[in-house]
Every structure is written in structure tokens, then in C-alpha cells.
Amino acid sequence: MSSSKDPASTAQTLMEALPYIRRFAGQTVVVKYGGHAMVDQALKESFALNLILLRAVGIYPVVVHGGGPQIGDLLKRLDIACEFVEGMRVTSPEVMDVVQMVLVGQVNTSIVGLINQHGGRAVGLNGHDGGLIQASQMQMTRQVENQPPEIIDIGLVGEVEQVDAQVLHALEHGNFIPVIAPVGVGEDGTSLNINADLVAGAVASRLRAAKLILLTDTPGVLDADGELLTDLTAARVGELMEAGVIAGGMIPKVSCCLEALEAGVERAHIIDGRVPNALLLEVFTDQGVGTIFKDK
Predict the structure, then answer these.
(1) How far is residue 183 CA from its own chain's centroid?
(2) Residue 11 covered by a domain
(3) How many domains does the chain fold into?
(4) Domain residues for 81?
(5) Alpha carbon of residue 89 to chain centroid
């Protein structure tokens, strides 16, 4: 049976990947997994296989996943009211129960199962496991003219205080792929709902990862004309934010990448998770499929 694949092209692709495999072997890559890549079955399977291949060539992938749409769907089915304040889900104890049910009990289990089904060795975690994510309750304020800042109660929403990497190191060097649900634990043992981008950035910083990669539903960071900006520095990001080119939901993602660089992560990326094999294309090819952030 003849194949439509060109063997010479396949060999050239492998040769292009070789220097990257050598460069990142033995290093950690932290991936924030979310968006369309989490719901499209073909993309879910290619993502699992991408992780397995990374691990097979000696790279240590660590996954932090989201689950906002799935949480929203279950809250709606249970008729539990929920609102957002400045992009943060107001998390009452009742909503927190649903957050844990979805992130830990459903989404995390599903991702771990898919990786294992395809021949990988994944282990699901959340902030309670081994004291992985120590967090504090986020304090949000709103400026009011001629008055002290107004404190806004957003409930059990957390921000990362500390990541204990011991369990991650043990899993990585035991040939497992850690898959982390973004649930932190407060000083009193309370579960806290944390933005997955923030958790991914904190984990990458703590592990001094070679790369932090955020999978999104956009091609990356776009300029004023809608063209992809393939590489950015902190100085250039500042100019684009001031001009209003980087705005809205892209601001926290970009800020997360820059903070990771400041903390010692070598490179940070925002890539298009809707592209099949996006992870491999970004790590192992010259062109990539998104925006790369560099400290200089």
C-alpha cells in the first residue's frame, strides 16, 4: 500500500527536531492546558500523544489544566447562581464544591485517563496533594473617587503563595507526567479556586522550567492589524499594552509569561491549541505556532 507521506519530508522534520531534543532533554516544560484543545476529541488525543512523546525523548512535561466552561455548565445544571468580577468567578462555598467536583473529580481524571490510555504514565494532583499549592484568599479592591478603596468579596478565590516541588520532582524522575488541577489550600486547609494560568506560572517558576507554554484559542499575541507577533520582549509588551494592542483577557496571560521569565523560566509561549500537535510544533520546529516571550 502506498503512503501519501513523503519519507524525505518526514526525515527532514526529524532532523529539524534533533537540536531541540538535545537542548531540552532533562529539562521541564510546564503546559497550561485549556480552551478548545480540552473539548475537541481529536485535539485531546493529539495533546496526550504530544506529552508522551516529550517524555519519551527525555523532557519532563508538567500539565496544569483549566475547566471554566465545564464548571459553568454544571453550575447551570444545578441552578447555582454565579457571577464574575473583573474576570474572576465569585466562589461561594457552594460554588467551591462544584469547582472541586469538576476540576479534580472530572477534568483531571479524564486527562490522566487519556494519557494513560495512550501509553503514558500520568498522575493527577491538586494543591492538597503533598501540600503542593499553598495559597491565600485573593483580596480584590475597587477604586472609588475621593474615598478609600472598596473591598470586593469574591469568596474562595486564591492566589499562589508557595509551590512545594518535592512531589513533582519525585513524579518526574519516576517517569510520570504530573497533571495538576488548579485548586490551592489555605492555611486553615480550606480549598481555594485559583486561575490556571497563575498556577502554571507559579509551578514553572518554582521548577525553573525551560519553558512555560499556555495553550489558548487564539494564534498568539496579535498586532494592531491582526498579524501574529512571533516573539516579544518585556519592553515591547509594555509598548503594546500602553497602545491598547494587548488588552482584555490577553493581559493576564502575557503578564503571567513575563513574571515567569523574571523568576528564571527560560522561555514562555502563548500558542494556538486549536492546531493539531501544537505542543510539538512549538517545541521542536524553527517556526512554531504562537508567540514566544524572551527576557531580552
Answers:
(1) 13
(2) no
(3) 1
(4) 26-294
(5) 18
